[in-house]
Amino acid sequence: MAPHKNDESPASTTAPAAATPKGSKLMNRSFKVEPELVVSAKGIHLHLADGRTIIDGCGGAAVTCIGHGNEEVIEAMYEQSKKVSYVHTQSYVTSSAQELADFLLEGNPYGLEKAFFVGSGSEAVESAMKLAKQHFYELGETQRVHFVSRRQAYHGNSMGSMSITSHLLRKRPYNDYGHQHVSHVTPAFAYRYMKDGETESQFSQRLVQELEDEFLRVGPEKVIAFVAETIGGALPGCVAPPAGYFQGVRRVCDKYGILLIMDEIMCGTGRSGTFFAFEPEGASPDIMTVAKGLGGGYATIAAVLATGKALEPIRRGSSAFNSGHTYQAHPLACAAALAVQKIIRRDGLVERCAKMGLLLEQKLRAQLAECRSVGDIRGRGLFWAVEFVKDAQTKETFDPSLGYGTRVQQAAFQMGVALYPGWTTVDGVRGDHVLFAPPFTVTEEELDTIVDVAKRAILSQEAQFL
After folding, report:
1. Cβ neighbours of residue 413 under 8 Å, at least 6 residues apart?
2. Which of 225, 137, 213 has its CA nearest to residue 181?
3. Which residues contact 88 (CB under 8 A, 6 or more apart)?
4. Do 402 and 419 belong to one domain?
5. Is 1 helix (H, G, I), strand (E, B) or coil?
6. Has the keyword Repeat been applied to this entry (predicted)?
7. Pair 329, 456 in one domain
8. Of 372, 446, 453, which is closest to residue 409 (Cα–Cα)?
């Protein structure tokens, strides 16, 4: 990932000069600084217009699960384009869409029966919310209008998905828009929210009780769903839930007939070392979303996966999901995702991700042990984050205006490794981290380089600010 240049970042003005042409008509994320121009990419490497080669240590945004430039995927897209490049799903379907759905949901894993393919994670979350609402509409429970989600959660950029998101900076210009029937509970974020003297089990129990209390405060008969990232992604930085948490959440949702939507846009499709990130949690969703690792960056694709329980009222009622997109189940996107998923399964890449993730954890903990600004190292599979603190004992954060995590990311980029920066980690205002999410195909030698560069980048900033 190139140096971050979103104006939300307090250190965005420190980005280096870019190689892209001046005066481009393309609207980039920042109006201040042009992003780096990538001229080619292969495997884990990005080749820039200025001649530099960057190791993609974060998979863009935890996207490139099999690396860049895979010829099998490119060939699959080419072959699909020769047959049919587009049809409208109101009247037509293609084999690539059918085969992808059948491949993903073979045997109805965890009760998941149907896949609805869209173009982005935000569209998937939006569609999941609509599907959950229609579930109760078909049951005649039209009073159910409320969603509960967690603070420090990111669910998307569309108005509906942003409504349940708690990314304060991204929401700030749009606070008067979006769905108004939303409330948030404490994140399952032990490093920051577990109390002194509290055990992991007690923390889980407290969070589950808070969720039930929130259902009761709103009125459980008014609540559609609880929406949660299985593993907190870019906003808090790879936060896995405490043991027993989702089992308790599942129990409380079932008690009041409330749906559970699990968002695995970033952490799913193998990224956390199991195909579904919820697999180690002992509980499964009624509806879930996946995206980034689904197509591996070769095409814009995301999916809503739904259980028979979620779909049954619609089957018995109107018999149609009241939603749709022009590019829904796009043939080329589905062909690309199918090729990616076949490679992952054939080559055992989910298992490899788990194995290499253990190596990454070991290397991060060993190499960063002497870094005074490293407060927490957390994650699962090839999905890891390092949270920075000014004081490791008190967990005091750096001044947000410093942009410490972004500075670390930019220093690493200048040394040839792309990491994913995060800020407002703790509460929407304070906190910094960087995220590691290399392709599942990463080698141990490449992991060594990524971790070594990260260490040198951190030490370079500690020399200035500690």
Report:
1. 1, 2, 3, 54, 419
2. 225
3. 326
4. yes
5. coil
6. no
7. no
8. 453
CB 194 within 8 A of CB 203: yes
Q: Are 201 and 188 in contact, with CB atoms under 8 Å apart?
A: no
- 319 and 388, same domain (yes or no): no
The vertex-78 CA angle with 77 and 84, nearest 5°, equals 85
Token output for 408 = 């670390």
Residue linked to tokens 């370079």? 460
Cα(463)–Cα(109) distance, integer angstroms: 50
377 Cβ neighbours under 8 A, 6+ residues apart: 361, 364, 365, 368, 384, 385, 386, 387
Mean pLDDT of the chain: 95
pTM: 0.95
* 3-class DSSP state of 167: coil
Residue with tokens 């003297």: 197
Query: Which is it for strands 38-42 and 223-229: parallel, antiparallel or unpaired?
Result: unpaired
Residue 21 has pLDDT above 60, yes or no: no
- Using DSSP's 3-state secondary structure scheme, residue 25 falls into coil
Structurally, how many domains does the chain consist of?
A: 2
CA end-to-end span of the chain, whole Å?
26
What does the alpha-carbon distance between residue 466 and residue 457 come to, in Å, rounded to a whole number?
14
Cα–Cα distance, 438 to 450 (Å, whole number)? 9
Task: Based on the fold, state whether residues 261 and 132 are members of the same structural domain.
Answer: yes
Distance from C-alpha of 102 to C-alpha of 259, rounded to nearest angstrom: 24
Domain at 319, CATH number = 3.40.640.10
The residue whose two tokens read 């689904």 is 294
Q: What is the mean pLDDT of residues 350-367?
A: 98
Write the pLDDT tens digit of every residue in 153-169: 999 999 999 999 988 88
Which residues neighbour 211 within 8 Å (Cβ) at sequence distance 6 or greater?
A: 148, 185, 226, 249, 252
Q: At 203, is the secondary structure helix, strand, or coil?
A: helix
158 contacts 123 by C-beta, under 8 angstroms: yes
337 and 402 part of one domain? no
Same domain membership, residue 360 and residue 212:
no
Statement to judge: residues 355 and 387 lie in one domain: yes
C-beta pairs of 139-143 under 8 Å, 24+ apart in sequence: 139/313, 139/317, 141/221, 143/221, 143/222
Cα(373)–Cα(371) distance, rounded to whole angstroms? 6
d(CA 359, CA 386): 15
